[in-house]
Design brief:
The protein is mainly alpha-helical. Helix content is 77%, strand content 0%.
Length: 258
């Protein structure tokens, strides 16, 4: 089998890993985008094609969480609406940013969250039978800011959303994962439309990626519900470590990972 054929076979496999990671935490595109670029796609087209997988994996994970009765029923509007508005604002921004400084800032933030997870595990593991959520005056700007970040840059936005949902809004780690995927799903519908209009999606590769991503998302959502918060927490810890090393090491994988 030739090298190009091996790479094509790798697309759904890598998609599975990405779908699994994105469903439980975030930063899965740190592995899918490089593969698409290696296959010869320009960075912007790789970014657009990658959104096909993200859309499908988000849809599958949200559906799986709902069918297993793990999607929270209250408090969604308070976090979804400001996040989506923020994403729209972030996507419209056109400012010059120091990418190296930005990546290092993201890496440091991930290290801070890692310390919080290790030092205060109960905040992530407790059942939250009585939710202790921040006031709307805190939640609205918090999720607007996370949404703006996601709309403009998106690298690791799932991790920041999850932290905000658990620590700021009082969701359980499993429930927060479900809501996080719902927010990302709405993000991606708008983002993919932009890429489609600009002819920056390669549907063949996108379909291969989506097939693997859907399987990974389905597996991760079922495992999250079955194994609970401790399992999700340890997966998140591993992903935080790897992502922080990649960001602080200034490992450039793509222009705008999700």
């Amino acid at each position: 089998m030739q090298a190009d054929q091996l790479l094509l076979v790798a697309v759904p496999i890598v998609g599975f890993v990405s779908g699994f990671i994105n469903t439980l935490a975030g930063s899965g595109s740190l592995i899918t985008l490089p593969l698409l670029i290696v296959l010869g796609l320009p960075a912007n087209v790789a970014n657009g094609t990658n959104r096909v997988g993200i859309l499908v994996q988000s849809l599958v994970s949200v559906t799986t969480f709902r069918r297993r009765d793990a999607m929270p029923r209250v408090g969604l509007a308070k976090v979804v609406l400001p996040s989506v508005l923020g994403a729209a604002a972030g996507a419209a921004l056109a400012v010059d940013l120091d990418e190296t400084m930005l990546r290092r800032t993201i890496g440091l933030l991930m290290l801070v969250m890692l310390v919080i997870m290790l030092a205060r595990p109960r905040r992530w593991l407790e059942s939250h039978e009585t939710r202790h959520e921040s006031s709307a005056w805190v939640q609205a700007p918090l999720f607007f800011a996370i949404g703006a970040y996601g709309g403009f840059i998106q690298a690791g936005v799932g991790i920041f959303l999850l932290a905000g949902l658990v620590l700021g809004s009082g969701f359980t780690l499993v429930g927060g994962n479900a809501v996080k995927n719902l927010i990302v799903l709405i993000f991606t519908v708008a983002a993919l439309a932009v890429f489609v209009v600009n002819d920056q999606v390669r549907w063949g590769l996108g379909a291969l990626l989506a097939a693997g991503s859907a399987a990974g998302a389905w597996t991760a959502a079922r495992m999250a519900v079955a194994r609970g918060a401790p399992f999700v927490r340890w997966v998140l810890i591993v992903i935080l470590v790897v992502s922080a090393v990649a960001m602080l090491g200034d490992i450039r994988l793509a222009d705008a990972p999700t």
